[in-house]
Amino acid sequence: MMAGVQIMFESFLKKIKTKIFCTMLLGYAGLCNAHDAGTVMDSSGTVAAFTGYALVTCFDNGNGPADHLRASVKDLSRPQDGLLVNLQIIKGNRAISTTDPVSGDANFSPEVKVQGGNGTYLLLVNKTKAGARSFSVSYHCMTASNAHTGTDIAVQQFE
Fold it and tell me: Residue 56: beta bridge partners?
């Protein structure tokens, strides 16, 4: 009986952590720009393979159908040798990545895009070694004429 309660409690805690992260991520987005989000990755600084994974859905919101998703990442932490933040976009058989080459300089990485039309894109954020990193991601679904169109995000993993 006690083991069952512990499993339920651990499951409950995992759901709460996910909801808190989503609230932080989406709350931060509301304060900055409609499609910027950020938080701290690996706050304990002990998980070299820490990965954030979200699904970004691009759709026609009246501005026209999506042509591509473009994104960039900014490492807001103080520089640390060999510790950089990376971002990848994947849709179907297309993928691209970018890295913020200078931590804490207030500049985003070079912007990248995947041309995959309407639908769901995978957006991944990770880092090159153990260490906490504060970061921000800018992501936008765009039409072929570079007009902003419908963009939704759902965080799937942050661990």
Answer: 121, 153
Partners of residue 124 on adjacent β-strands: 53, 88
Element (H, E) at 31: helix 2-32
Cα-Cα end-to-end distance for the chain: 29
Residue 120 phi/psi, 5-degree rounding, is: -105, 130
pLDDT confidence tier of residue 34, bands split at 50, 70 and 90: low
For CA atoms 10, 48, 93, 122, the dihedral sign is: positive
Report the C-alpha gap between 106 and 109 in whole angstroms.
Answer: 10
Q: For the chain, how big is the Rg over CA atoms in Å?
A: 17
Whole-angstrom Cα distance, residue 11 to residue 27?
24
DSSP for residue 109: P
Segment 100-128, tens digit of pLDDT: 999 888 899 999 999 999 999 999 999 99
Which H or E run contains 10? helix 2-32
Structure token digits, residue 137 = 């991601």
**CB neighbour list of residue 1: distance below 8 Å, 6 or more residues apart:** none
**Contact of 120 with 39, CB cutoff 8 Å:** no
